[in-house]
Amino acid sequence: MSDFESTTAFLGKWGRFQQQVFFLLCLRSIPTGYIGLSVVFLADTPQHRCFIPAHANVSAAWRNRSVPPEEGPGGGLALSQCSRYRLEDMVRFSEGDLLPGVDVNLTNVATEGCLDGWEYDQSVYTSTVVSEWDLVCDDQWKKPLTSSVFFFGILIGSFISGQLSDRFGRKIVTILALVVQAFFTFISIFSPSWAFFCCLYFFVGVGNSSGFVAAFVLGTEIFGPHVRKIFSTLGSNLVFAVGYMLLPLFAFITRDWKMLLVALTLPIPLYLPLWWYVPESPRWLLSQGRVEEAEAIIREAAKKNKIEPPSLIFAPLQEETKSPKGKTQNICDLIGSQNIRGVSFTLWMVWICIAIAYFAVSLNTVNLHGNSYLNCFLSATVELPAYVLSWIMFRRCSRRLCLFSTLFTTGLFLLFVQLMPASMTLSKTELCMIAKFAVTIAFSIVYGYTVEVYPTVLRTTALGTSSMIARIGSILSPYIIYLRSYSLSLPYILIGCFSVLCALLSLLLPETYGMPLPDTISQMQRFPGTEGRPKSQGPKRYIRQVRHIRTCSRRRNNVDLCHCAQTR
User: Per UniProt, what is one GO molecular function of this protein (predicted)?
Assistant: First the structure.
């Protein structure tokens, strides 16, 4: 449908129809924002200590001193969260009226694990998933797995969204994903176990990403070039950030993981009327041969814009929709030639790095000094100017310079955090927010760059594949944050070094600023080291050359091997 836009140009750029669809599809991004990072509060770990049963005959003095000190991940001494002094010893000392640290040397008292469970501090949260199922100490590995399961659901949702949208339409997937998201978010409240909760939370991730992707595609196919650029770079991203900003507000009001899920679910049914106000993609309808339905949508749009449509709108396109398609491209073509292989592997590394940095910094906001709700709100708020700046940079700056500068800034400021004295907690938080600002810009720019660098025949496949590969980074990010249980500085050191490395790698990517969009693989910008080289002829061709050289060398001792190989 190469002339779809020229055929529908009579609608204008920004009429009532475009305004209505733009506004409603942007609002659709709000649930994606506050559910996408809800695990920050759902699975936060409250302060905890071993529980001493109320019926145990332990004096108040021993209850207050029941936890031994141990070396914390920051190097200093802290009260143990996974052990206590042996209960029978504390009972015996209490019955003998012996005071801890006065009559009894605590270093000589034996310790044991938390055999009776844990008691959790409720000053910040009434309850979280961690406190509900005791995901601490020997089971603390389950906490990052909870986040990773959700992000794996996002990966699967990103994959199936394209398949379902191409088969059943963009509109039905957009609405159906809302239903899936609301249903599984709500029934997660009744999970009888942690494993069951993870299964349900996986489907929350599937609905979260599939709906966002379908709505994004629907908008880009309905709008013209000018509005499409604003929608894809600013509109959906800014509203996503607004949804993200609502998350700490919901969490602050509820303070309980079950009530938080209720609060996240309640607004979603309000979006179901989108079915009657947002049309199906006319482009998709034409691709399915449903010309009459596509024309009816355009006529309704013209009516809203108070424009008289032509008597025949898509008649010239009917033959095009029925014409046979050319060779179908697939994911294997992303690594088919030496040039595109170099671009793909390098760009995928950049995608993974950005995802790790973005989600790790976002998930770690509750571990920063100060109020966890305020820190999360600030982390979301910095995304608003970041998206605006990314749009300006994308219009005026070199793509390689944009990626390099933002990734290098991210890594540099995360490494600076480790150089700050422990007492400068506010400065550390500020540096983390600057890093979040920079990586958000990088995330926005890499989407646009991926669209520009790949040819038309592979553009959608390349963007979908890159987005899926980035989910590897989001799945790994909870485990990188988990490393802070061994060393507080280790996560940011790893992320900082990886960001700087990928910033340098981004300089190898071909420049696309001011370049025409390629339509074929041969029109792509060249990856360094592949200029002027002939296309690789494969291993079989190479083996035949080697065998021929050996044959030549046996027949003629003074043969020119290079000439022999070239003539072959």
Answer: transmembrane transporter activity
Interhelix angle 170-187/257-265, rounded to 10 degrees, is: 150
- Give, for 78, the enclosing helix (H) or strand (E): strand 77-79
Class of domain 1-35+136-323: mainly alpha
Whether the model clears a pTM of 0.90, i.e. scores above it, the answer is no
Contact at 8 Å (CB) between 114 and 83?
yes
Residue 50's beta-bridge partner residues? 118
Closest among 212, 150, 51 to 362, alpha carbons compared: 150
Tell me the two tokens of residue 307.
């424009």
Residue 355 confidence (pLDDT) above 60: yes
Q: How many CB atoms lie within 10 A of CB 387?
A: 21
Between strands 77-79 and 48-50, the pairing is unpaired
Q: Looking at residue 256, what DSSP letter applies?
A: B
Q: What is the dihedral of CA 472, 474, 477, 479, to 10 degrees?
A: -60
407 contacts 265 by C-beta, under 8 angstroms: no
Rounded CA separation 388/413 (Å): 21
Domain 335-532 has CATH 2.10.109.10: no
The two structure tokens encoding residue 335: 């690594």
For 449-513, the three-class secondary structure string (H helix, E strand, C coil) is HHHHHCCHHHHHHHHHHHHHHHHHHHHHHHHHHHHHHCCCCHHHHHHHHHHHHHHHHHCCCCCCC
Q: Report how far residue 437's alpha carbon sits from residue 441's, in angstroms, rounded to the nearest whole number.
A: 7
Q: How confident is the model at residue 209 (pLDDT cuts 50, 70, 90)?
A: confident
In whole angstroms, what is the distance from residue 2 CA to residue 428 CA? 52
181-203 tens-digit pLDDT: 999 999 999 999 999 999 999 99
Round the CA-based radius of gyration of the chain to a whole number and report it: 29
**Backbone dihedral angles phi then psi of residue 246, each to the nearest 5 degrees:** -75, -25
Tokens 């994903």 correspond to 177
Cβ count within 10 A of residue 17: 21
Name the residue among 463, 443, 444 with its Cα closest to residue 453.
Answer: 463
Alpha carbons 381 and 241: distance in angstroms, whole number: 7
Partners of 62 in beta bridges? none
